[in-house]
Design a protein that fits this description.
globular; mainly alpha; 246 residues; 9 helices
Amino acid sequence: MGRAVPIFRDLGVGALCLLVSAALLWSWWKSSPWVPLLAAITYLGMAGLILASVPCHWRGLGWANRVTLGRGILIALLTGTLAEPDLLVRYATPLAALALLALLLDGIDGWVARRTSAQSDFGARFDMELDAFLILVLCLALLLLGKAGPWVLAIGAMRYAFIMAGLKLTWLTAALPESRRRKAICVWQVAALMISLLPIAGATATSWLTGSALIGLLWSFIIDIRWLYRHAPARRPEDYQTGNHS
């Protein structure tokens, strides 16, 4: 119980920040109560996954993961807007700024982890799963606004399809080597989807942006799946852990 108290404290502070932010935005936007409710549900789900995954010996999340948690709060607020798509039209620019801030923090948490010598598998996974969820939220926003067809969900769903495939094909769950390509494509996906949500992005621009994001993601997955397949015979059983594609 002793080690859990600081973890719960970190998550409690995060919950308080979310509630205050959601209340302010709710008052400003005059939105329906479903918006802060969906944001709160999203945060609770994220907190539950953190508690289930954080190493048992940890006595707190640490500053790098607290920055990542801050990203999670921003992403939860963005998720809440899916309950009222009209907000995405009326406040497209502020919401794009919120997504941009979440994207910028993606680089800061890694920098903090390196500066404090606090790199960890949990932190890398936490960061990566937030990236994947943000991409899915942006894809859903484009679909709800009618700026892209259902095919855009392939961008956000591909990561989760990869995980599901790993339940059957265990060689897909091996750890992948570090890749700047993977990170660059993730950044481009978020940027392309974010720009597509802006009012200035017409149908043609949106198609080109989202299409390039999908093609880049497919190319990245093909490279990684090929690498995993080629190295599968050389793997030992203990090497089969949760995959780290993003």
